[in-house]
Design brief:
This protein has 250 residues and is of the alpha/beta class. The protein has an eight-stranded parallel barrel with strand order 1-2-3-4-5-6-7-8, surrounded by four helices. The two termini are 17 Å apart. The N terminus is likely disordered.
Length: 250
């Protein structure tokens, strides 16, 4: 993996776009109240936070989630409702119902479309889903959670794409798709688990080199696919907030 040799601060990309955190979604606020409260702390460099009540918005309004979402919005943080596309298997009617619930119950600012398909053949249906979502919320911020580099046409359909979601061992040797150079870094997100504290600066360099301005790094692991590594805050939260929020020289 190539490394950069520059004096650019860690909180900006080469063209001056600010690096910020996109939070895939913590555990329920009743289980992790301190972590949700920490997200609303003034000055935290957040791009957005995803709200996943129960594999989506849940079946009824949840007062704890409403409070957590409201606290974030009051702090100027964008809140996204989690929608599971199940790799294209979920009917659009179910997705639209979940989206309405997110909007009505939690007043979200947009949607994270998790497990979004990446193939060219699935693009028309994903575009149709996005059109329906924008019809009910014309200012919605739409993030497509592919987790890998999709067919390039997806980049014209949403505000952001998650083009990496996986382990540090894979990320440090990953390659960026050439077509991403046609778009600004604030179009792309990288989520990486299992990043050791001592490799935070290296991980930030990789994100900048690959042109991703929204990131989430954690030392938590997926336990071989048995655990959700995004459910809890990384052990070095203060370190990564400091690196991104104030910048460090390399």
């Amino acid at each position: 993996m190539p490394h950069l040799t520059s004096t650019t601060a860690a909180n900006t990309t080469g063209n001056g776009v600010r690096t910020a955190l996109g939070v895939p979604g913590y555990a329920h606020p009743l289980v992790a109240p301190a972590q949700w409260a920490e997200l609303a702390r003034p000055g935290t460099p957040l791009d957005w936070v995803a709200l996943n009540v129960a594999a989506g918005p849940g079946t009824r309004p949840d007062p704890h989630c409403l409070e957590a979402a409201g606290r974030l919005r009051n702090a100027g943080v964008r809140v996204l409702g989690h929608l599971d596309l199940a790799h294209g298997a979920r009917p659009s009617g179910d997705l639209l119902s979940d989206a309405h619930h997110h909007l009505d119950w939690y007043r979200v600012d947009g949607f994270l479309l998790d497990r979004c398909p990446a193939e060219r053949t699935a693009l028309p249906e994903v575009r149709r889903t996005i059109t329906l979502l924008r019809a009910i919320s014309d200012t919605a911020h739409i993030v497509l959670g592919h987790g890998s580099h999709p067919y390039p046409g997806y980049a014209e359909s949403a505000d952001q794409l998650v083009t990496f979601r996986g382990s540090w061992s894979d990320y440090r040797f990953s390659q960026v798709a050439e077509w991403t150079a046609d778009y600004p870094p604030d179009r792309f997100c990288h989520f990486v688990h299992g990043v050791p504290r001592g490799h935070l600066d290296e991980a930030l360099r990789i994100a900048r080199w690959q042109g991703a301005a929204t990131i989430y790094f954690t030392d938590r692991t997926d336990g071989g696919g048995r655990v959700d590594p995004w459910e809890t805050m990384p052990g070095y939260w203060d370190d990564i907030v400091s690196r991104i929020g104030t910048g460090v020289s390399e």
